[in-house]
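Example protein
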Amino acid sequence: LFFAAHAGFLLFALKNGKCAMRGLPYIMAPCLVFFALALYPAIDNTVLLIAVLLYLLVSCCSLAAAMNMKSDRFVRGFFIAGISCIVFSDTLIALAEFSDSSALSFLIMPTYYLSHILITLSVLQLKTDRQPSCRK
């Protein structure tokens, strides 16, 4: 279901812009290095390994698409910040679950909640921007 949520975030960003293909390699490269060095050696189940990789890829695409949204600066800014927070939170979860590094685990839930608050603000701001004004 978290993968479905990221797919939804990606669709929202694509609906309001397009995937920043120029920026995608800069986002994807550190994530793939993290995957190769920290996660790949720690996960011995092939199905889980593939699932984690697919989740990482959709997360990177969501962030790249958020960075290229064609929206008001607040909508775009809130959405980028929200997706960045959720990617950070997911990275901390992966570290805690697969590499026994839990030093920053206390940040998982605050950044997760903050991500959803920021994404919600983005959607609400977009909805407000699209409403016709009621001037008399």
About this structure: The radius of gyration is 16 Å. The mean pLDDT is 87.
